[in-house]
Amino acid sequence: MPISAIAASLSYADADARLGGALSAVFEGAGASPGYDEVLFFDGDLTLDGDFLDAINELRGGAELIVVTGDLKVNGPIALYEDRPGLYVGGHTEAQTLEGGEAEIYIHDGAFTHLVYGWYNHGSLRTGVVDTPWVIDYDHAMDVYAPGGRWVNNYDDDDDDADFAVGDGIVEAFVPEVVDAEDRCLNVGAFLDRLRAGLPVLRPGAPDGGRVGE
Fold first, then answer.
1. Gap between the Cα atoms of 95 and 97, Å rounded
2. 182 pLDDT exceeds 80?
3. pTM above 0.85, yes or no
4. H-run or E-run covering 135
């Protein structure tokens, strides 16, 4: 069973006031239609077993925005691909993965065993300093600071800041089991499965970073 702070259902305005305006400072959805009406507010530290969203729904479903004022530890993935719920964590976040799609996600520092992944051009994913081996960007609004991680542009090859990018950079660096041969990008599901199994994802001799194939 998860060990958690007591959850409260608050209006967005009340939750924002309790955090001294921290929510309205970072979440665009608060001021846009439909905005956030109900906030599932955890005052303190929160530890959950398994998939984050499944565990939250068992505690109390239907939240539009989840707020954890303290540390968040998840013994599984954090994967928020729909536009609701969003997530705000005021303390340290730990999980197997941090995956964002249409949701707005804002955390402070954290550690993610396998990867941080931003998918598609809705939503946003913003962090403080995080420890993770891989950051994968698919045309997403990402403000992620992972100084020890390798950055993959999984959308196109027009990114001088990425370590690996769509095309030769990915095809030549990664094992074929994790590459979409047609689109010449990573198959993120296969990539994550291989990481979880403890198998290599880079070809022998491939550099740990730098644009391969240029």
1. 5
2. yes
3. yes
4. strand 134-138
